[in-house]
Amino acid sequence: MSYFHRNECRVCKKGDLTRILSLGEHPPVDNFIEAGKEQEEMRYPLDVYFCNTCSLVQLLDIVEENELFHGEYAYFSSSSKPLVDHFSKYADDLKKRHTLKSDDLLVDIGSNDGVLLQFFTDTCRVLGIEPSANVADIAREKGIETLDGFFTEKMAKDIVEKHGQAKIITANNVFAHIDDLDEIVRGVKVLLSDDGVFVTESHYLLDLIEHMEFDTVYHEHLCYYSVKPLCYLFERFDMEVSAVERVATHGGSIRVFARKKMGKPIESSVAELLSLEEQAGIHSLSRFVDFQKDAEALRDKLVSVVRGFRKEGKKVTAYGAPAKGNTLLNFCGFTGDDIAYVTDTTPYKIGRLTPGSHIPVVSPDILKTETPDHILLLAWNYRDFILDKETELRKRGAQFIIPIPKVEIV
Ligand code: TMP
Ligand code: ZN
């Protein structure tokens, strides 16, 4: 078995943890498999815990990194146009907040296919760090220098020796992937210049809980952040959260700015969001007591809707094969009998089977000639974009089933 169970909180190191959601055993959601290899698939527990000391919501069953992020990693940030637009705007925001000179260095941890760094190549020096070689190669083809491997304190020292310290370090949708946060923050402290800023974007717990986005729970996502435990984490390293922003990506995310303590004022956004979290109750266990029941109710409703259509002889397919879609498909127990196929724009995924549910992934081109009766929108975070893009398909009679935050047919 290549997973282990951790007994202490990743941020505060205390052991007072309560399980708030159990989704059963799931295969890693980005391991799209080839037909014939279904038997080789491993499943691991997918349980979410709340830390009663620092309020961090997290997974404690850790699948080995090499099983999750490898030479065949299926996630390419640039596959979704709205996400590329998001990173373009993110780059503009960073440039407005921080004046970058041409010899300043920007380092992106988990740089994927260079989706953020590509917007800085004319502004300053950029360096990506990406453990999945197939994804890193795409960034290199765009001319973005990219280091292989996982970011560590040792790697930070090597970078400083070769390139100097960084003015900005970013880590988007990867800070939640890290088991050993201490190692990362130590590395960030080494790499970051004294006037530099570390910026992370992660899915936001407040959005997750308020909009029932429980499908975003999967083995790669070890932490479901709110501002409170992040303040606690940086404090332990004599750093501080200096500003926070809510952004719309992935169903609602937080962008967190952290820096070395230099006695500079903290933006009011930090206290404001902390107070909002407190009011919403996400710093206490009681807010999560119905989480399991609510997730199961949504699942039961979705299963009855899809199987109801199938009983009527209707053809049901799915749209988008994001990682979270696999949590949802597997939690519902859907198979190819329920969902005929999933369409996705990512070339890597096309021709493979979804992990666990083993539904074929096909090119969206099929929807030019075929009109399914119902299409389950797994990429619900792009709801408006996709409903708009597929106006013609909907005119032909296809109805979309939106699963999150509640089951809805449009
Ligand atoms: P993401 O939510 O993690 O960005 O993943 C979205 C997935 O959905 C990704 O595999 C690409 C796919 N997708 C489509 O197939 N069609 C679309 O129009 C969009 C926006 C995404
Ligand atoms: Zn804790």
Structure description:
This protein is α/β, with parallel strands linked by helices and 410 residues long. It has 2 domains: 77-288, Vaccinia Virus protein VP39 (Rossmann fold, 3-Layer(aba) Sandwich), CATH 3.40.50.150; 298-409, NAD(P)-binding Rossmann-like Domain (Rossmann fold), CATH 3.40.50. Helix content is 31%, strand content 24%. The protein is built from 13 helices and 19 strands. It has helices spanning 65-68, 81-97, 133-141, 153-163, 181-191, 205-210, 227-235, 268-280, 291-311, 323-332, 366-369, 383-389, 391-395; strands at 3-5, 17-26, 44-51, 57-59, 61-63, 105-109, 125-130, 146-148, 166-172, 192-203, 223-224, 239-247, 253-260, 316-319, 342-343, 361-362, 374-377, 399-402, 408-409. A 7-stranded mixed β-sheet has the order 8-7-6-9-10-13-12, with helices on both faces. Strands 16-15-14-17-18-19 form a 6-stranded mixed β-sheet. Strands 2-3-4-11 form a 4-stranded antiparallel β-sheet. Helix 4 (153-163) runs parallel beside helix 5. The mean pLDDT is 96. Residues 9, 11-12, 14, 51, 53-54, 56 line the site of zinc ion. It comes from Candidatus Kaiserbacteria bacterium CG10_big_fil_rev_8_21_14_0_10_47_16. Keywords: Methyltransferase, Transferase. Pfam families: Methyltransf_13 (PF08421), Methyltransf_14 (PF08484), Methyltransf_23 (PF13489). Residues 9-69 form the Methyltransferase putative zinc binding domain. Residues 249-405 form the C-methyltransferase domain.
